Amino acid sequence: MNVDMRQFFQIFFAETEELLAEKEQLLLNLDLSDPDAEDIDAIFRAAHSIKGGAATFGLSDMTEVTHVMESLLDQVRVGNMRLTGEHVEIFLQAKDVIKMLCDGHQHGAEVNRNAVAEVMARLEALSHTSGSVGGADRPQKGKSAPVVPTICYEIELPAMDARQLDILLGELKMLGELEQEITPDGNALLRLISRETRDDILSVCSFLLNPDDLAITEDVMFSPEGEEEGEEDEEDPGYGFFDNIVLPSQHKNDDETIKADKNAGGKKAARSSFQSVASSSIRVGMDKVDQLINLVGELVITQAMIEQQSTSLDPMVYQHLLDSVNQLSRNSRDLQQAVMSMRMMPMDYVFSRFPRMVHDLASKLGKKVELVISGAATELDKSLIERIIDPLTHLVRNSVDHGIEMPDVRHANGKSEVGRLFLSASHQGGNILIEVNDDGAGLDREKIMERARKRGLPVFDNMSDSEVWNLIFPPGFSTVDVVTDVSGRGVGMDVVKRNITEMGGVVDIRSARGMGTMLSVYLPLSLAILEGMSVRTGDEIYILPLGHVVESLQPLEGDIREISGQDKVIRVRGDYLALISLADVFSIVPRATTPSEGIVVILEADGNRLALLVDELVGQQQVVVKSLETNYRKVPNVSGATIMGDGEVALIVDVSGILRTSNLNNDMAGFVL
């Protein structure tokens, strides 16, 4: 049998990424004073699985690192060595090294061989360190030690390549005592004495073979009940009957020992649920999902056209046809929601990387930080979830570096030495709300205003807190006195705001001196579907994103003022806002000859507000967004396009773009008539 192993590389790399992520999360959650035995076993299994796959594909460097790490883990999990913080740190570093090696093999990324050698040396040193636990931690005579049965497995393998057979035999030997013989029909018959489960054996064999091609029979040689009956005579538990049998415990440690632990039932249920979900899922390329979403979008547009055309039909004559059109509308809407959910990913994809980052950064800065995550199951479109990683990373780093104080400072201020950082996600209407909240020192209003004045930014004594907090977003702004490798260069917050704005989102800051800071990020659930308000100007229909619409009103002549002989402002509840005509933005002829004949829509973006003059409001609707830049070219003040029910193309207005290009709006702060 000649198998091209390259076809399995991507599966191996994907599974390795998942195992490394699981291992990191388990390590960060370990309680050193009372480590969960099941979690340590899970960490060991992850390392063992990676090593088995790496050996199968001939990735010797990954195999060597995982083998040394596995040996040290094995000593910890069987009680020969007490788990310490040093162990956790080196296991985390080993995880980083394995990830680096994996990226090197998968993407050709640069590999720091010195870092690999250093980690292996530390693992080896710890493995030979005298750190065995005292007798109090070992099972005492007369007390029951939980065990699992020893089983003799007979495994019949199909005919296979000699090299692949050698690799497989090498892996199976790690599970127990292995004997081999060749049957007359050329198949390999194996006899394995092990305490591993049938599923463990199948997982090892499945790297090279189809599990359906295996014939496995099993016979229990030594059961837990049998050991309990004879455990009073521990010096000779077998009475000579088992002298010729080499038990796995004599050359390897008990692997899957049933250990009593706290919360075992809940954890097993959670893991069982995860395995059930994983086994019922398939991997589909994003290009196929995107193609399906585009086709459903076209279907929805066609359905809207049919629905609009059917409005002119007599309901008495075409009742059945109109009922069918209504049913089509419902089905199309349900289909669109179902297909869109395929591209949704849980926020855990983003949040799972922060525990390690906070752990490392807090250790580097000498701070104590507890990260609390909630809402990790909240879903967001994949196209957005990948773009939100960098902004959130900067916000979290800012909270640890600038927000949370040093332990001695917190203690002097009557706070716990351990600062708390909260990271949460939740749905709010058609948006997702992501919050980064710390209980640190809070923002310093006076210091921010002082730095803003030095940089020539517009600052007024009567500025609200919200306006002051927004001063931290301009490029180059920083309140840090000393530049470090963590912060102080004034880059980051401007990029955060720009990236979030480009995704159609909004950033809001709330802070109290000495109490902490909360940064809230509002994002649309998807960029493929948009809730919009359709407005008419001249003979054209435009779409205003509903997330930017504050209100609409009929203007009065007395509320409109002209300044600079050309620009106009409108008074809305005592405040003056820049008044811009949508007809002027797109150089078309409006139907309304004076502002009082039209409708003013108040829009808000980037912390600023704007009054947009249109001829009339058409209605609110959900539209399928099409990229104008991809299909045509980039158009100023336009973020996309959509096809209306009558087949006409409507442009989606870029509210942030209009605000940026409005010279009047830049100087409206503090304007008084």
Would you write up a description of this structure?
This protein is α+β, with helices and mostly antiparallel strands and 673 residues long. The protein has five domains: 5-132, Four Helix Bundle (Hemerythrin (Met), subunit A); 145-224, 3-Layer(aba) Sandwich (Replication Protein E1, Chain: A), CATH 3.40.1310.10; 286-343; 346-524, Heat Shock Protein 90, CATH 3.30.565; 529-666, CheA-289, Domain 4 (OB fold (Dihydrolipoamide Acetyltransferase, E2P), Beta Barrel), CATH 2.40.50.180. The protein has 23 helices and 22 strands. The strands form five sheets. It has a six-stranded mixed beta sheet with strand order 14-18-19-17-16-15. It has a five-stranded mixed beta sheet with strand order 6-8-9-11-10. A five-stranded mixed beta sheet has the order 20-12-13-22-21. A hairpin with a 5-residue loop joins strand 2 (176-182) and strand 3. Helix 1 (9-29) packs antiparallel against helix 4. The radius of gyration is 33 Å and the shape is flat. Mean pLDDT is 77; it is low at 130-147, 223-279 and 669-673.
SSE inventory with pairings:
Blueprint lengths: L8 H21 L7 H20 L3 H18 L7 H23 L5 H15 L22 E8 L4 H12 L2 E7 L5 E7 L3 H8 L9 E8 L1 H7 L33 H16 L6 H25 L8 H24 L1 E3 L1 H4 L2 H12 L2 E7 L4 E3 H4 L3 H15 L3 H6 L5 E11 L2 E8 L6 H10 L10 H5 L23 H10 L3 E7 L3 E9 L4 E9 L2 E6 L3 E5 L6 E4 L3 E6 L2 E7 H4 L13 E7 L2 E7 L1 E9 L3 H4 L6 E6 L5 E5 L1 H7 L1 H4 L7
Parallel strand pairs: 6-8, 13-22, 17-19
Antiparallel strand pairs: 1-3, 1-4, 2-3, 5-7, 8-9, 9-11, 10-11, 12-13, 12-20, 14-18, 15-16, 16-17, 18-19, 21-22
Helix pairs in contact: 1-2, 1-4, 2-3, 3-4, 3-5, 4-5, 10-11, 13-15, 15-19
